[in-house]
Amino acid sequence: MDQKLNYGIQTVERLSSSRSEIKKLYPYNKVVLLKKGSKLLIDFDWYICKSDTVYFINPNQHFTFQDSNGVLLFFDPDFYCIEIHDNELACDGILYSNVFSTTSIPLTETVGSKVQFILQEIQSEMQSKDFWTNEKIRLLIKYIIIECTREWVKLEGNKLPQLTREQEISRQFSVLVDKYHCQIHNIHKYAEKMNLSTKTLHKYISTNYGTSPGCILAKKIILEAKKLLVHTTLSVKEIAFKLGYSDASYFNRYFKQQTQSTPLQFRKAYQERYK
Questions:
Q1: What CATH superfamily classification does 7-155 receive?
Q2: What is the pTM (predicted TM-score) of this model?
Q3: Domain with CATH 2.60.120.280 in the chain
Q4: pLDDT tens digits along 93-144
Q5: Which CATH class for the 165-274 domain?
Q6: How far apart are the C-alpha atoms of 252 and 263, rounded to whole Å?
Q7: How far apart are CA 134 and CA 125, in angstroms?
Q8: Distances (CA, A) of 41 to 16, 44, 57
Q9: What domain of life does the native source organism fall in (predicted)?
C-alpha cells in the first residue's frame, strides 16, 4: 500500500507480520472481523474474541494483532464520511467516535454471514473495477454499518429497534468529546452544545454508564496524552499545548491526579516495559 487508497481489504494474518503495513492504516476508519480466539490490542487495551467478533477502529487509534485470524476493511474518512451519514444511520458515537469504549459486536451466525457476504462483494468490486465501483462500495460500507448498528441496539436490549433517549444523548456527547476534547475542557459547554442543562447531561450519562461526563472527558484526554507520550517524542509542554493546556505545570498535576504518575514517569515506565 504505497499510495493513499480510498479503501481496501487485507487479511489479518498478513498485517500481523508487518508493523509497517498496520501503521499505514492509522488514518483510515477500520472494520475488523476476527475469528474466535483472536487477540487484538487497541491503544492500551487487549481484547480476546470469545466468538467471531467485529471491531470498529477509529483513525489514529494504535492497534496490533496476536494469534489472530480474520479480515480488515479500511476506508478513507473522505471517501465515506461517517459524520455526513450520521443523520441517516445514527452510528457516530456508537461504532465510531465512541469515547466510552471501543465498539465490539459478537456476531451471531446470521449477522456474521451477512458481514462476510458484504466483504466478499467489496472484494469482487475491487477486482472488476468500473465506473460504478466506488459508489457501490460506499453503499456496501453503509450496509455493514447498518447491520452492525442494528445488532448493537439488539445487544443493548432495546425494546424498540431504535436508540433510547439516554443512548441518543450519550451518543451525541461521545461525538462532541471525541471532536473537541483538545479545545473544550468544561462540561457545561458540552451541555450547551447539546441544548441541555449540565444537570440533565450528568443524569443521562451517569444513568447509562455509571460515571459522570467529567470522568468520560478526563478519560479521553488522558488516553490521548498517553498515546502522545508513547508514540511521539514531543515534550510534556508540547503535549500539554496540543491537548489545550497553556500551563504545562497544571497539565502535569492533572495527569498525575488521573494516573498516579507524572507524564515523564509514564513514558519511562512504558519504554522500559516494551524496550
A1: Regulatory protein AraC (2.60.120.280)
A2: 0.93
A3: 7-155
A4: 999 999 999 999 999 999 999 999 999 999 999 998 899 999 999 999 999 9
A5: mainly alpha
A6: 7
A7: 9
A8: 11, 7, 11
A9: Bacteria
